[in-house]
Amino acid sequence: MKATNVEEKTTCYHCGDPCGEHTAVLDDKHFCCSGCKIVFELLQENNLCTYYELDDQPGIKLEEMFISGKFDILEDDEVVNRLIDFRDEYTVQVTLSIPAIHCTSCVWLLENLHKLADGVLQSRVHFMRKELSITYRPNEISLKKIAEWLTKTGYEPIIQLSDLDEQGNTAKPQRRLWQQLGVAGFAFGNIMLLSFPEYLTGLGIDPNMQFVFGLLSILLALPVLLYSGSDYLRSAWSAIQNRGINLDVPIALGIMALFGRSLYEILSGTGAGYLDSFAGFIFLLLLGKMVQRKTFEHLRFDRDYRSYFPISVLRKEGEQEKAVSVDSIKEGDLLRIRNSEVIPVDSILLTGHANIDYSFVTGESDPVSIEEGEMLYAGGRVAGPSIEISATKKVNNSRLTELWNKKMDQEEHTDAKSGDAQKAYMSDLADRVSPWFTATVIAIALLASGYWLLANPDPGLAANVFTAVLIVACPCALALSGPFTFGNALNILSNNGIFVKNTGALERLSQINTIVFDKTGTLTNQNDTQLEYKGEPLARFQLSAFESLFKHSLHPLSRSILANFNTFHNLATQKKGEFVLANGASSYSKYSGISSAQTTEWQEFSNDDAKKNSSGLDENNTTDTEYQEYAGRGAVLKAGVTYTAGSLAFLQEKGLKMGFQVDDRSTTDGSEVFLGINDTIVGRLTLQQQLRDGAASVIEKLSSTFGVHLLTGDNDSRARFLRPMFPSDSALKFRQSPEQKLTFIQHLKQKGRRVLMIGDGLNDAGAIHAADFGVSLTEKISSFSPACDAIMEASVFSKLDNIIHFCRSSITIIWVSFAISLIYNLTGLVFAVTGQLTPLIAAILMPLSSVSIMIFTTLATKLTAKSHNLSVWK
Amino acid sequence: MEVMYLLIGFSLSVALLFLGLFIWAVRSGQFDDSSTPSIRMLFDSNKNNHNNKNENKR
């Protein structure tokens, strides 16, 4: 939002935005717009003003006009059935994703939904996942009404195509881990208590009692072995069957040595066993797993095209239009797609003319003009008035999805062929160390026991030493280093606006040596355009007329112009100062952001009906005005005088003649809109997408350590401008198709480079997937982004180099913690090899090493984050 | 010292009871969401009662 110059110091009571000229007042409270005031009134009527007490200005501004009919699709029972969690005779439970949840007040309000909407029994928020589970009575309220209530208060539920086929319960595996942890902890504590006699050997406990304690310990340890520790044993076994050794193999060895030896010792009465270390070991391992799992609660990373498409579309059935689920579209269906909606299927255009924004699919930033009878492809967004299309394929058969699937297949095939081990198996650092570790341990065990066998013919001692070595070499610390370091690192990264998929991805990130950037939406900010005006000076009333013209137009450029209207005014009148628009505002700040749907049915009607009387010139103006838009080319407004705006070709077609100097045409690198009054072309507006803040410096900083390249689907109009930002040996490629991007990445990989690809659109999807590490840049975390290893908020783009260096440091931290754990292992080995590993020593070493690793990794990652200028706390 | 057996028996039973309760809590979904309850803690329950009490005092 562009701030207005005439700024009152008051901020909106509801959402906190500065109150400009649209200010609404109620009970001496100020609101930035009537939308916020309406929500306040709604809450006040229902006694829900606690909302404002729990957090500061928690309200969410309704940016988009409420499009009635948005949730019509929820009237379809079949769709509802696929969305709900379960249903019984009187109630239904459904879980909706509400990305707008961000604070305490949100939780409070949403859990008090029953006070707003009758029929809702209860609602429960899951804050991390940004979900709301609602239980309601279907015969008192419909899902559609609930969705509308939520939207009215600012908490719009986002329903995606992928929600329709979600099956399975993600809660189950988490519960199992809790149970395993509980059992292990219970056993650990109690076995330790029972082991006290063993620790305090001087007290002379009755050997019978010790035997009973031993039996009890075995009893307690059994569920730990069979339930809590079973996953490790199973994993180790399957790894061995596949002739590999992962971290679970030495863990399993340790577990079995501990348990086996203890069993033998207790039952034969030769010792007290090591069951306390056994239970403690498993407990700590599970704790590490839990920590690791905690960090992945938030985002869904497996986004595919089904998250991008809308869930419903308007289908013409006879004379009526009905909202139907996108899945039910068949070949030949007649559909109507409105402004800013996504086309869900490949189809043929039936309306005379259409303006389609394919930027997400191809990266091309200018909308494409399509004529009647031509093909339209799924994934494009309608950038003009609504259109009618005839479907030629079903949703999952469209060219886009086939391209996607082909990408995936092709990519995996290539990986297997070229033997590229990077993606083919996701290796954890610790997993790679395991073979060496295990081999060394076994070797030492054999050597030590062999030595003792020779030195002392008593086989008991040899067996003692053998198992002792296996026990003490338990990779507890080793197993914890990874999860704790990565867990902390991932948390810190999340606080800094980048969400990494998992630890394997983080490891790959630290090995990157080449970075490839996309341009549109990645390096450039689609919401930030700079406007320039060249031509004849304009009078105030002429500017008003053009303002009215742009307000009627549905072209995305019109929105950008309105957002920068102040600049236009200053340049056109060569005066500094405020331009007050017809309705009293000083700029259409709400028009900034190409993605906001400013269309209402009203605007569509006014467009279809060319002889509409509405005029933005003056409320009391009675002059008849006529407005006509020619999609993709230009628009004409007649109000006594004829005002024209559009492409040069369009104006010339209309017979207008050049009225000012255009000597620098060849150097233009941006979108142009020419303006005409009556039959003269009076001026030209140029709009350029601005580079993101800090983009240039990020590239510069990165290019000193990494190779950098640029791949874009857009044209090369800005090549001159971009070239100096990159080092001379970088490749800058324009007009790249998705396939070409993919090939470029594969080419780099074949040369042995480790590539990071950062992009934001579907056209980058193949390349992002093919890269060693793929980053999706997005303005809004909740909106769609292609499947990737990390999702990054656009606002933190300038920290990219800090982030990559931080990840490299994290890997160093892990190596250091491996070294520390090695020290503990060696100390223990000294005891083990000399046959002096008592249960007491084992019981001390194990927890000590684990706790010190936990503390070390946590502190080290936080310190490293600070030194890289990343924020440690939210 | 035989009393030890009895004591150990008791303590283990109590511990087992707690374990059972824990597992029950996990199964009934109390551990599914560990972040939202910390926010819910901040809410006032029965705010209406509060207001009534204040009014009575006036």
Topology:
The complex is a heterodimer of chains A (874) and B (58).
Chain A: E1 24-26, E2 29-31, H1 34-45, H2 50-54, H3 77-83, E3 84-87, E4 92-97, H4 104-111, H5 113-116, E5 120-126, E6 131-136, H6 143-152, H7 161-164, H8 171-194, H9 196-199, H10 207-228, H11 230-241, H12 248-268, H13 275-294, H14 305-308, E7 312-317, E8 320-325, E9 334-337, E10 347-349, E11 353-357, H15 359-362, E12 368-371, E13 375-376, E14 381-382, E15 387-391, H16 399-418, H17 421-424, H18 429-455, H19 459-472, H20 476-495, E16 498-500, H21 503-509, E17 514-517, H22 519-523, E18 524-535, H23 540-552, H24 556-563, H25 565-573, H26 601-608, E19 626-630, E20 634-639, E21 641-646, H27 648-653, E22 657-658, E23 671-677, E24 680-691, H28 695-703, E25 707-711, H29 719-722, E26 732-733, H30 738-750, E27 755-759, H31 765-770, E28 773-778, E29 790-793, H32 800-833, H33 839-867
Parallel strand pairs in A: 17-25, 17-27, 22-24, 25-26, 27-28, 28-29
Antiparallel strand pairs in A: 1-2, 3-4, 4-6, 5-6, 7-8, 7-9, 9-15, 10-13, 10-15, 11-12, 11-14, 16-29, 18-24, 19-20, 20-21, 21-23, 23-24
Helix pairs in contact in A: 8-10, 8-13, 10-12, 10-13, 11-12, 12-13, 12-19, 13-20, 13-33, 18-19, 19-32, 20-32, 20-33, 32-33
Chain B: H1 3-27, H2 36-40, H3 47-57
Structure report:
The complex is a heterodimer of chains A (874) and B (58). Chain A is an alpha+beta fold. Helix content of chain A is 45%, strand content 17%. Chain A has 33 helices and 29 strands. The two termini of chain A are 24 Å apart. The model of chain A is unreliable at 1-8, 410-427 and 576-622 (pLDDT under 50). Chain B is an all-alpha fold. Helix content of chain B is 71%, strand content 0%. Chain B is built from three helices and no strands. Chain B has helices spanning 3-27, 36-40, 47-57. The longest helix of chain B is centred in the first third of the chain and has 25 residues, at 3-27. The radius of gyration of chain B is 22 Å and the shape is elongated. In chain B, 2% of the residues are buried. The model of chain B is unreliable at 49-58 (pLDDT under 50). At the A-B interface, helix 4, strand 5, helix 8 and helix 10 of A face helix 1 and helix 2 of B.
